């Protein structure tokens, strides 16, 4: 072992060990950043019982992104059979009016920027293949 090296112990070196979990510490003050990137268009899935449809987004971002789902460009809020409007997974209770024609998008935002997914449309095809 190199003479300058040190074996860390959980009790005596707890603070140092915790610091190594922080990228800014490991990278000597540099904090990595990356604007959100939508890795794939949100995918729709029907629940096993056929009562809900779920849209899931796949996003990469550093630091972590916040999310806002939209319908036809208007921000959604949880309630009335809608949940997860500020997460990567949006759940809609069925039946829903205009399911076949509404456009659903997700906007991912962090301190480095924002990205909007391509719209998901024709969810009726997922419900009635």
Secondary structure layout:
Elements: H1 14-19, H2 23-26, E1 34-46, E2 52-62, E3 66-71, E4 74-75, E5 82-83, E6 89-93, E7 104-110, E8 113-116, H3 124-127
The beta-strand count equals 8
* Net shape: elongated
SS-derived structural category:
mainly beta
Spatial gap, N to C terminus: 63 Å
By DSSP (H or I, 4+ residues per run), the number of helices equals 3
- Major sheet summary line: 4 strands, antiparallel
N to C succession of SSEs? HHEEEEEEEEH
Strand percent estimate:
35-45%
Q: What integer value in Å does the Rg equal? A: 21 Å
Percentage of residues assigned to helices: 10-25%
Q: What ranges have pLDDT less than 50 throughout 5 or more consecutive residues?
A: none
Whole-number average pLDDT?
92
- Order of strands, main sheet, comes to 1-2-6-5
List keywords for this structure.
129 residues, mainly beta, four-stranded antiparallel beta sheet, 39% strand, elongated
């Amino acid at each position: 072992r190199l003479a300058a090296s040190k074996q860390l112990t959980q009790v005596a070196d707890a603070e140092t060990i915790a610091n190594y979990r922080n990228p800014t510490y490991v990278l000597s003050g540099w904090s990595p950043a990356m604007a959100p990137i939508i890795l794939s268009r949100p995918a729709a899935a029907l629940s096993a019982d056929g009562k809900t449809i779920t849209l899931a987004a796949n996003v990469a971002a550093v630091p972590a992104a916040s999310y806002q789902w939209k319908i036809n460009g208007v921000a959604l809020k949880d309630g009335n059979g809608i949940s997860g409007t500020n997460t990567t997974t949006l759940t809609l209770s069925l039946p829903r009016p205009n399911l076949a024609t509404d456009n659903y998008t997700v906007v991912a935002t962090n301190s480095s920027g924002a990205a909007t997914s391509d719209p998901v449309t024709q969810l009726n095809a997922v419900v009635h293949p």
